[in-house]
């Protein structure tokens, strides 16, 4: 039996939370373990519940989703945050990308895309709609985090794994593809981040796209 993916929903609108709960509650393998109405509640709930994936609205009163994401990832760097928003301005997304958010999805996306994004993050992958990825690729140097200055060349295996990370593959999928253990895949990714001077796999994915190491084939377009 597949383990349940525990999800925390963070949004200041009760109707949005109710809608997400209704939609995701019908998906096999997903369990809503909690809700939060603002960033402060989200930080406390994430620490208490340790969800597998956090669906985080960006615009909220008091402490917004970007501030909450930064704090959650400071306290737990392994947390998996999926930003949920109607905003399309990448300037509002960059801080969360720098902090280590692993995904972004529009509130207008269909339920099946939301489910796909959740499962991608749970597997350790990165989920970025193609339109957002294109805009992020044109970000000024350093806008998404540290840019590599002097590179320690990647090995052939590390380059292969970087390509899979950029395509949104999680550790388990990479391990199965390359016939290695998930732990070994994680070690390789840590070495890649260290060599490139990057903070997280989202930055690594965007770096690979920016450098032409892999073509732009991220998550589908969203309106």
Task: Provide a descriptive summary of the structure in words.
The chain is α/β, with parallel strands linked by helices. The protein has a domain at 5-137: 3-Layer(aba) Sandwich (Rossmann fold). 46% of the residues lie in helices and 12% in strands. The chain has helices at residues 14-24, 39-49, 65-75, 94-99, 111-122, 130-137, 156-166, 171-178, 182-196, 201-210; strands at 5-10, 30-36, 53-57, 81-85, 103-106. It has a five-stranded parallel sheet with strand order 2-1-3-4-5, with helices on both faces. Helix 1 links the parallel strand 1 (5-10) and strand 2 (30-36). The chain is globular and about 50 Å long. Residues 218-223 have low confidence and may be disordered.
* Strand coverage percent: 5-15%
The helix/strand order is EHEHEHEHEHHHHHH
Percent in helix: 40-55%
CATH architecture assignment name of the domain at 5-137? 3-Layer(aba) Sandwich
Q: What summary fits the major beta sheet?
A: 5 strands, parallel
What do the pLDDT scores average to? 85
Summed up, the helix count is 10
Shape: globular
CATH topology of the domain at 5-137: Rossmann fold
Which secondary structure elements does this structure contain, and how are they paired or packed?
Elements: E1 5-10, H1 14-24, E2 30-36, H2 39-49, E3 53-57, H3 65-75, E4 81-85, H4 94-99, E5 103-106, H5 111-122, H6 130-137, H7 156-166, H8 171-178, H9 182-196, H10 201-210
Helix pairs in contact: 2-3, 7-9, 7-10, 8-9
